[in-house]
Automatic annotation (TrEMBL):
GO annotation, biological process: DNA integration; DNA recombination
Species per Swiss-Prot/TrEMBL record: Salegentibacter echinorum
Protein name (database record): Site-specific recombinase XerD
Gene3D superfamilies, per the entry: 1.10.150.130, Intergrase catalytic core
Source taxonomy: Bacteria, Pseudomonadati, Bacteroidota, Flavobacteriia, Flavobacteriales
Keywords for the protein's UniProt record, in alphabetical order: DNA integration, DNA recombination, DNA-binding
Molecular function, one GO term: DNA binding
Family: Belongs to the 'phage' integrase family.
Keyword DNA-binding: yes
Sections of the chain in a coiled coil: none
PANTHER family documented for this protein: PHAGE INTEGRASE-RELATED, PROPHAGE INTEGRASE INTD-RELATED
Keyword DNA-binding recorded: yes
Length: 402
């Protein structure tokens, strides 16, 4: 007699979330059927084999688990009263064949996992890419075996020449499709033999990009800029503060709170990867912060006033508002750049590139990793490679200086 149980596997994903699986045991041999759902350990009730009520989507997810359990149980009953004996592996294969999923349904599993982690920016970006691919295929029930190298190359051409997207953006679209396909294979919804990515098939090529930052002299021009409007000065203040804090992202800058500033240090949690950060407040940064100290008397705890009228607990509205603020800041920064004679493109993100350009190879890579808040030192090395030109310049001089 086979038994079934819902449980968490011990191995987590990169976000420290654990997969919920259905374990089927027969003759002391177990097989695991993945449900496609991942949760934090604290939300799992192992005794009752369900998600705790404290989880924001507990009702929906527990209903999904109940449906899955019912399907498995019905299949077990069929197997029990069948005259043909079946192994546990064959049972699992038959069950999965009865629960086939297409690209859309597996994409929804992928998006739900992102949404459950409260990564609203990533969720909306990935959803748009998936929707565009399904729309291009003209098949809302697109099966994984229908995703071949021909379809992928046609979609790539469509993005490049019809949508006029940059090569790096196109690569991101293809990475999303590959991620969903890998999830389908991992959950036994797609066959590895049909996998269209890799050598000899469709290869995702990530183009080299050159990140250009300002020089020290150009930053000084910005620091000494005069005759600016209030809106322009505010945009410049936010840009400089971002630079002074090692290229802090604008999403984090405009959400800084007064309580994040303690004992001449900045303490905050990064929006992108939820990392806790602690940085000394440089004198230049403190002077800018002091200009906004009168705002402490308001009901808002934010250092900058840009998000006063925005519900910070609504991730969708917050994302839309930040995009609008960034667009307005970038427009002001272009005007400022022209007024001080800077020909390079000046935007909020340029502050991060500027910090990398000026730091160059002056700071040990391990310290740069800490300042950039990168999870991997490889990411720091790849990022910093854009700004380290000393060796190449010296090699060039050795050849042509004769």
């Amino acid at each position: 007699m086979a038994t079934i149980k819902v449980l968490l596997r011990k191995k987590s994903n990169a976000q420290m979330l654990y997969p919920i699986v259905i374990r089927v045991t027969k003759n002391r041999k177990s097989s695991y059927i993945y449900t496609g759902q991942y949760v934090d350990k604290k939300y799992w009730d192992d005794v009752n084999q369900k998600i705790k009520r404290s989880h924001p989507n507990a009702s929906r997810l527990n209903h999904l688990l109940l449906v899955k359990m019912t399907e498995v149980n019905e299949k077990l009953l069929e197997m029990q009263y069948s005259k043909k004996k079946k192994s546990i592996s064959k049972f699992k294969k038959e069950l999965l064949n009865n629960n086939t999923a297409n690209f859309r349904t597996v994409s929804n599993l992928y998006l739900n996992n992102i949404n459950n982690r409260k990564k609203i920016n990533q969720y909306l970006t990935e959803k748009n890419r998936i929707d565009q691919f399904i729309k291009f295929s003209r098949n809302s029930e697109l099966e994984f075996q229908d995703i071949d190298t021909s379809l992928l190359r046609k979609f790539e051409s469509f993005l490049l020449y019809n949508k006029k997207l940059k090569s790096r953006t196109v690569a991101n679209y293809m990475i999303t499709i590959r991620t969903v396909y890998n999830l389908a294979i991992r959950e036994d919804y797609a066959e590895r033999n049909n996998y269209p990515f890799g050598r000899g098939r469709y290869q995702i090529r990530i183009p080299d990009t050159k990140k250009i930052g300002l020089t020290i002299e150009e930053v000084r021009c910005l620091e000494e800029a005069t005759g600016l409007s209030d809106a322009q000065q505010h945009a410049l203040n936010v840009w400089l503060l971002s630079f002074y804090f090692a290229g802090m992202r604008i999403t984090d800058v405009i959400q800084l709170k007064w309580r994040d500033l303690k004992d001449n240090r900045l303490y905050y949690r990064m929006n992108k990867n939820s990392k806790l950060v602690s940085l000394k407040i440089p004198n230049k940064a403190q002077k800018i912060i002091d200009q906004y100290s009168f705002l402490k008397t308001t009901t808002s705890n934010l250092v900058f006033p840009d998000l006063w009228d925005t519900n910070l607990d609504d991730p969708v509205k917050l994302r839309i508002r930040i995009k609008t603020i960034t667009r307005n800041f970038n427009r002001h920064l272009k005007i400022i750049a022209n007024s001080v004679g800077i020909e390079k493109n000046l935007s909020m993100h340029t502050s991060r590139h500027t910090f990398g350009h000026i730091s160059g190879d002056k700071i040990p890579i391990q310290m740069l990793q800490k300042l950039y808040r990168h999870s991997s030192i490889t990411t720091t090395m790849q990022y910093q490679a854009n700004f380290i030109n000393k060796d190449a310049d010296e090699a060039l001089d050795k050849v042509i200086d004769f």
